[in-house]
Amino acid sequence: MVAEQRNGSILIADCGTAATKAVLLDRVNGHYRLVARGEARTTSAYPHFHVGAGVRHAVDQIAAVAARELIDMRGDVISPEMSGRQGADVFVVAASASQPLQVVVGGLVRDLSIASAERAVARTYCHVKAILGDDGSSAYNEEQRVRHIRDSAPDTVCIAGGVEGGAASPVLQLVETAVVACSLMEEGSRPSLLYAGNSHLRRRVVSLVEGRAELRVADNVRPSLSEEDLVGAQAELEELYRHRRLARVPGIDVVASWSRLPVVPTARAFGRMVEYLWHLTEPPRGVLGLDIGASSTTLAAVFDGKLSLTVSTDVGSVFGAERVMQMQGAPALNRWLPEPMSEQELQALFITSALHPTSIPQVSQDLWLQQALAREAGRWALDKAQPAWRPGTARPYRRLLPLFDTIVVSGGVLRHAPRPGQAALVVLDALEPIGISTIVLDQYGLMPLLGAVGEIKPLAAVEVMDSGGLQNLATVVAPVGRGRRGETLLRIQVTYEDGSSFSAEARQGDLEVVPLPPGQQAVVELRPARHVDIGLGGPGRGGKRRVRGGKLGLIIDARGRPIQTVDDPDARRRQLRRWLSDLGA
Amino acid sequence: MYYPSESLVSPLTNVRRERKLPAPGEIVVRKGEEVEPTQVVGRAQMPSQFRILPVARLLGISVKKAERCLLVKPGDVVRRGQTVARLGRLISRTVESPMEGVVTASGGGRMLIEAQPPIFELRAYVRGTVSNVFYGDGVVIETTGALIQGLWGGGGEGSGVLKAILKGPDQMLLVEQVDATCHGTILIGGCGLEDGVLERARQLQVRGIVTGGLEPSYIPQVEKAPFPVVVTEGLGKVPMSTPIFRLLTTNEGRDACISGKTRIRWNPARPEVIIPLPAEDVPPAAGQPGAQLGVGSRVRVVRAPHLGAVGTVVALPGEPKIIETGAKVAVAEVDLGQERRVVVPLANLETMR
Fold first, then answer.
1. pLDDT higher at A59 or A80
2. Dihedral of CA A136/A138/A140/A144: which sign?
3. Dihedral of CA B77/B83/B85/B88: which sign?
4. A492-501, pLDDT tens digit by residue?
5. Which of 403-442 (A) contact B at CB < 8 A?
6. A308 and A441 inside one domain
7. DSSP calls for A96-147
8. Is the separation of the CB atoms in A286 and A403 below 8 Å?
9. Paired residues of A11 in beta bridges
10. Is the per-residue pLDDT at A139 higher than 60?
11. Are residues A420 and A276 in the same domain?
12. In DSSP terms, which residues pair with A291 in a beta bridge?
């Protein structure tokens, strides 16, 4: 981490696929505070074809609020700060406005090297176009593999395989296959090769590839059967993403020239902030971050101080509905809609919103659909992310989410939800947390922005986060253990700071809210039934916990895990409306 | 300050279209040359078929020995069935080429044979003048005329004569209205297409359809249609906006170019209709591209409940307002004509220039 530089104002911009966000941070009474924020459409396409315009539009909003000149006559961001409070000392940019890196993954064994390579690829903005396994050594299979690579026209072929000192010949064959495929492609459109396999073969790989393709080498992603090392491959893939995709975003070079620091991929910046959150309290369980962007969904899980970052580039809150429909069909979305829609109606609405990705739902049906897609985006990302997590004792149930002390959620679909109960319900349905967790909403979209500045001014990031940048949405108690419908699963007694108390019973299927306003704390005594686990040491074990208030208060989610929606359309309509009503949504 | 997205609907403007080859190739027109829509302006070789022959394995010998058995070398042209490797003289084992092509590489006991690559022909798409040539890469073609950007479309590119059938933009294009006189024309529709219109249009070799709305159930058909379809306002039963309907119908009988190509997510592209018109002086476009939304801006609503409606911004309240969903957002008051004044979130407006 770079040492803290001199104190001063910090302007940060995040160029997303749909929206560009900007914030100005400055010292107030010796502490960094959020001064103003702005948000505008991302302008990489017609009529601007320059992301700089969107940054200017967002920064102009800040300038108007802060009564401060931040853009000069030429339209460039003023940095460092000049006399008369013109400009900002530091300007930092995060971005995710480009198409993901297109990758073909090759390896030897599906559940070992290929799985590890896939996880490395999932740590940044990548889209896997094809997977090549070693399904025999015949050259006709090689021909198919060459065809796969050529027809996929990837940016990168990532080859893993062989534990350290292990298999040589099949790995080298894979490399040669990739080289042959490269030779069949036009010179300007050839992919680079990233070798992240058995490191003992590096020299032979270099001589095989020499002059025939661009070669990058990273540490073996699977050094042994039980070990995984994704750091090196992740760094190389991130570098490739920056050079092969991010650099192609119209105007990003100009925006980057306003800053002394390289552009940070938004997901990495988000992950860094989730890591900070863990380090602030070092909770015994994990901290989870969920960022639902317009075209991608990022999950950052930290256990024992170790970050696991997963970027799902195929589904977001605006784009990617076709992927959900293709893989799971309309029922996957209809299960979250109070009024079911036909496949064509769903498709029409998705196309309409994708054509104008910053537009917002104005009628309930549109809103429900957007939030349904956000739920599926979260679930989709979770399926992809979980195999890479190492939660240890924080995962008492293999098929359920591990225990998380804090779940921080970000993204326009949650931030702009008309009612906090809607945002909370999307998170509960998407992640299905268990035990006791605090859900924190990134109400201003600060997480990636602060993460971007964290590299040079971690103090600023932490101080702004602490000073109200994040909003406690609710503390959730989600018991695990099914009972009969209406059976009491949990008894709760809440004792407020003023000494008053409130008692309640949570029955199977209930979704209850106990008032506990922001800024207040309360002691919650939880007494689960014998077969019910609330994450306090096993079934039947209860206890007292001091919890903080939130916009919604304390949510008791006794709907069971996994959450099940009923099939009958009328009954489902009633069920979904009841859940919405229970959370005041 | 809000900078909305934009749609171009202009009766006369300068149109500049970049046409790029999918792979490096050859440009066959010169700067300043007049071109017709179907004229070929460039050619490129596309990825060809190939085969990898496992010579060593087929002959049952080592890689090193296989090198000595090859009868052809990289660069040689081979015929289908031609012997390319032989082991032994009197009682020999051979390997034949499975295809006609060129030997492009050999090594490691294998041989790579590539077929003659297929040629891609890039057409001008729009009648106009070649204003720039990027050698081996593409051209820029310029013209003057009317330009209508649509919202969504499918079915590639084409050109033909505009044909008006309907009396108003809120009418549905019916099957019975698509008759033999529609052959080779671009049909101007209204609020949607009756079931069967796309099939009838295909039979009559219609060159394109422009419609205000389109029922979502026709999306798969349009995506595979042999002619371009341009939806100008939105999916569903949505009347074509009056300015677009007027612009198209007043140009009935004129040649037009139509593209249904739509890319939504990355590198977005919108469908369009271009009607080349001779013009000495082109009036400046209304408003600057990328301008801020203001009172008096001509706008189109892009989300329900007023999807596709066109109007004029009459007020921009400074304070956010609560809309039907309960969200508190910045809004504009928009006059949709006929005494309809509605409140629309700024985010749901695009300007029409």
1. A59
2. positive
3. negative
4. 999 999 999 9
5. 416-419
6. yes
7. --SPPEEEEEE-S-IIIIIHHHHHHHTTSSEEEEEEE------HHHHHHHHH
8. yes
9. A24, A91
10. no
11. yes
12. A298, A410
Q: How many domains does chain A have?
A: 3
Same-domain pairing of A308 and A383: yes
Q: Which helix (H) or strand (E) holds A569?
A: helix A569-582
Q: Is residue A1 part of a domain?
A: no
Query: Is the Cβ pair A362, B305 closer than 8 Å?
Result: yes
Domain carrying residue B63: 50-114
Task: For residue B330, count CB atoms less than 10 angstroms from its CB and return exposed for 0-12, middle for 13-18, buried for 19 or more.
Answer: middle
Given A192, A213, A244, which residue is the final one in a domain?
A: A244
What range defines the domain where residue A314 resides?
267-582
pLDDT, tens digit, for every residue of B91-138? 789 999 999 999 988 888 889 999 988 999 999 999 999 999 999 999
B window 266-285, beta carbon within 8 A of A: 266-268, 270
Could you tell me if B91 and B153 lie in one domain? Answer: no
Which residues of chain A from 329 to 358 reach within 8 Å of chain B, CB to CB? Answer: 342, 344-345, 347-348, 351-356, 358
Closest CB to A352 among B3, B215, B235: B235
A-B contacts (CB, under 8 Å):
146
User: Given B24, B52, B219, which is nearest A347 (Cβ)?
Assistant: B219
Same domain (yes/no): B222, B347: no
Chain B contact present for A485, CB below 8 A: no
Whether residue A256 is found in the same domain as residue A327: no
A435, A486, A509 from A579: Cα distances, Å: 19, 15, 10
List CB contacts of A505: < 8 A, sequence separation 6 or more.
A488, A490, A491, A492
Give the Cα separation of B68 and A56 in Å (integer): 67
**% of chain A beyond a pLDDT of 70:** 98
Residue B288 φ/ψ, nearest 5 degrees: -80, 150
Per-residue b or e along B100-117, where b marks 16 or more CB atoms closer than 10 Å to that residue's CB: ebbbbbbebbbbbbbeeb
Q: How far apart are CA B43 and CA A206, in angstroms?
A: 36
A535 falls within a domain: yes
Domains of chain B: total: 3
**Half-sphere CA count of B12, side-chain side, radius 13 A:** 9
Kindly indicate the confidence band of residue B286, based on its pLDDT and cuts at 50, 70 and 90.
Answer: low
- Tell me what the mean pLDDT of segment B155-159 comes to: 94
CATH code of residue B62: 2.40.50
Per-residue confidence (pLDDT) for residue B287, from 0 to 100: 64
User: Do A331 and A195 belong to one domain?
Assistant: no
Residue of A nearest to B220 (CA): A344
Whether residue A424 sits in one domain with residue A559: yes
Q: Do B348 and A362 touch (CB under 8 A)?
A: yes
Residue B289 forms contact with A (CB below 8 Å): yes
> Is B329 in CB contact (< 8 Å) with chain A?
yes
Query: Could you tell me if A66 and A119 lie in one domain?
Result: no
Give the span between the Cα atoms of A115 and A109, in whole angstroms: 8
Are B53 and A139 inside 8 Å of each other by CB? yes
Determine, yes or no, domain membership for B281: no
Which among B152, B303, B344, B349 is the top mutation candidate for probing chain A, defined by the most A β-carbons within 10 Å of its own β-carbon?
Answer: B303
B24 occurs within a structural domain: no
Distance CA A462, CA A33 (A): 10
Which tokens belong to B162?
């505009």
Cβ-Cβ contacts under 8 Å, A188 against chain B: 24
Q: For residue B80, tell me if it sits in a domain.
A: yes
- The encoded tokens of residue B182 equal 């529609």
Is A34 inside a domain boundary? yes
Q: The CATH number of the domain where B151 resides is what?
A: 3.50.30.10
